[in-house]
Queue: 2 jobs
Job 1
Amino acid sequence: MADFDGPLRSDPPGPSWDELAEGDSRSVPEFLRGESWQDLGDEKLSVDRYISPEFFARECAKMWPNIWQFAARVEEMPQPGDYVLYENAGRSYLVVRQDDGSLRAFHNVCLHRGRKLRTESGWATDFTCPYHGFSWNKDGGLKKVPCRWDFPDMQDAEMTLPQAQVGVWGGYIFIKENEGGPTLEEYLAPLPDHFARWRHEDAYTTAWVGKVIKANWKACAEAFMEAYHVSATHPQIMPFTGDANSKYMMWGDHVNLAITPFGVLSPQIEGEATEQDIIDNFLKYNGRVVEPGMTLTVEEGMTARASMGDHNRKRFGKIFGRDLDEASDSEVQDALTYNVFPNFSPWGGFQPTVVYRWRPWPDQDHTLMEVRLLGRLQPGEAAPQPEMILVPEGGSYADHLGQLGNVLEQDMNNLPEVQAGMKASKTGLLRLARYQESRVRHFQHTLDKYLAREDDDA
């Protein structure tokens, strides 16, 4: 079948995601049903949030030290002595596996003359500064001071490496610089309850690709908070994507969700398509839940959505090493894109998982956008240690992530022009759709709460 290329319709979209889910062959989880949405108004945003060095400096001082940050996955550091270098917003940390299997995070700065102790992840018995040889044990305690006689007033206690808080959930390792505030479990709620069904603790990194984007980190993150951009940016996926049928949910200050249905025709396309047409386009352009060269015939009386559900329950069941007969059609094909404030986005469902992370790299005009793909470990299987592939300037995610990478590159083509456009804006203002871009406003409201704090330790 040729690509569907009918005109867009102007009337409101068809069935909601909940109505589509009601027709699924298996029940979707109760926590995905109903409404969990806030009308946050339609106030315009200033471009200064994205282009101003002063605004960026406030984020670095008031927001980043007070939030839980996804720093690593457990498979990156399985053995005592393994450590991960995590850097963000002007800070540098070493997350270290201790001899008893616990984790500690230290500021990666020598307490003598300020050199970074490490410049890459690895394994160590201690951390010796390459400048003068001061060294620390894996637990952060002082080990050795060359010419100790020349520091007569130095006390070992004052030379312990400063620590950050560490928390682990679902195989993800988080750090938080400042004391106080919510625990990790409180911060993530209700995400752990949702993901108990999908068990990311049984996952491991199968691919990890980073690329520096010439745009603000928030602009990059917000590009993945709504499906409103699909018709203009990703028109090739509309013949199997219910973009305007997407559902948006939010909980508290830190967690929100977009559910975009697949296996249905976009309600913005005028005209009709057969269920087989929808499947054929799904197989051609979706790089996440289909395999290259895969074929699938829609049996008489079946929908494309149900057919993909049946196929993927069996396929992912084998990959996961478990029976997925109870999994809903949604959970094996839809985009369940969670976002944890400010820069961690794990996808839900029983399927190969996508995880996004965005970090300013190093300023308000550049972002390191990382994309991980997570598979599932078979019982008794050990995860390999992953390493990030950094895409060189001019390179493409598609070189490493296939069809998914092609879709990502369409987003990347927008973002530098978004940054440049905001700098050139005469009005200096941005307007958001009230519903489809409500996750962006939720994100910005939470950021404002952190920036409004009286002091950095609040």
Job 2
Amino acid sequence: MSALTEERDTRRRGPNTESHHVYPVAATVKIYMGAMVALTATGFATPASAPGPTQTVIGRASATVDNSSGADGDLKVEVGSHATFDWDNLEADPVVAATVGKRCYAADDQTVALTDGGGTRPVAGYVESIDPDTTRVWVIHQPHAI
């Protein structure tokens, strides 16, 4: 896949234990609703990406926030975490059944991968399950546990 260019209907499942927190958005970025969100090393929200090994993935954006022409912290984004979300599986480095219960990595703001890409991808969360067609991965986002 590639980074989002529009809002995404990212499914959530499991008990209704999703936590919502608000974070300041990094300068010159747009975070789409449904995107996987990470914090930069300086604590600003940005779409999860590679290269981005110093990013900390925190969850899913609840709404689109466009800070394309703003400075760090000009806008804020609400992020859902401590929940299980449905992401695309990177075809070139797919998460596999043996990975259930283990870490997976963010390839971009809607895709997870099996490996850290040689140290270029941030940890996305823990694999809960993989859909039977293997194109979708359910990932538990618990930032404090990564």
